[in-house]
Amino acid sequence: MRIEIHSFNGVHFDLDVEESETLKNVKQKIRSKVNYPVTQQSLIFNYNKIDDDDKTLSAYGIEDGASLQLRIAGEWKITVELMNDLVISMEINPNYTRSIRELKYIIQHKTQTRAEIQRLFLNGNELLDEAYICEAGIQDGTVLVCRPKMEILVNISGRKITVGTKEDDLIKEVKRQIRVMEELLSHKLRLMLNGTELDNMKRLCDYGIVDGSEIEMYKEPYTNADFVNIAVLDQGGTGYHFKVKMATSIRSLKLVLQDKYKIPYAQFRLLFGGNRINDFDTIQNLGIHDGDELEMFLCQCGC
């Protein structure tokens, strides 16, 4: 059977195991994957620590598809406040996550906020990528603030939103962020600067767009695409409704859910017909039709 391991640093991986295997055997397999010493590993299942290495997986009720959370001795829990009011908790181990750059990649994994646009601040001071965590003043309980390298204003019918980006981002990347923030999964976007439409394959710097610049956005429904209305049901039965193109990826849908409901991207899975679906599949490839429902499953590990 196959189980999922969710590591403290945001790394997920699968393990092929037998239900008759002992916990110690599983930890040895984990070491072969990620090289964490067996004696430093702690595993959590259904919010409970399982610590008898001589017991089998079946004795703990662990079945095919189960998710286990991996903890390593010496972990710190820190909080990161991101753009758009998204707040995440992270577990890091200074023995394994050494630099600020590595920390940014963990944030990217959890939220899909690209590491290259992130600026991290502690008590108002920016932390450099090359700095070591142990030298930057970070410790257990620290609160970090994450801001983009630059912010631009987008005027949408008189209403302004702020988009985090960097000067060499492509226009199509800016559109992707706006599409997520505004739930525009069924509209074509046009970005304008001083009356000139911005080309998808050009960069912000090509148009002289810098931190604080303001551009205009216009939207229009796609006329040559197929659409479906779908619902995403959380574990409490609450439904979130979307109109999407058939070509929309599950990743795009998850990013909209993250932005709107402040649930970190890596902290939930979407299921269709009881089966977990890949983030890079599309609505069309999965055979999802108008009126279908997807299920949202929150990871017990809180990864």
From TrEMBL:
Top-rank taxon? Eukaryota
Which InterPro entries does the entry mention? Answer: Ubiquitin-like_dom, Ubiquitin-like_domsf, Ubiquitin_ubiquitin-like
Q: Which Pfam families match?
A: ubiquitin
Positions of the Ubiquitin-like domain: 1-70, 76-144, 150-217, 228-303
Q: Which PANTHER family match?
A: UBIQUITIN (PTHR10666)
Question: Under what name is this protein listed?
Answer: Ubiquitin-like domain-containing protein
What organism does the record attribute this protein to? Panagrolaimus davidi
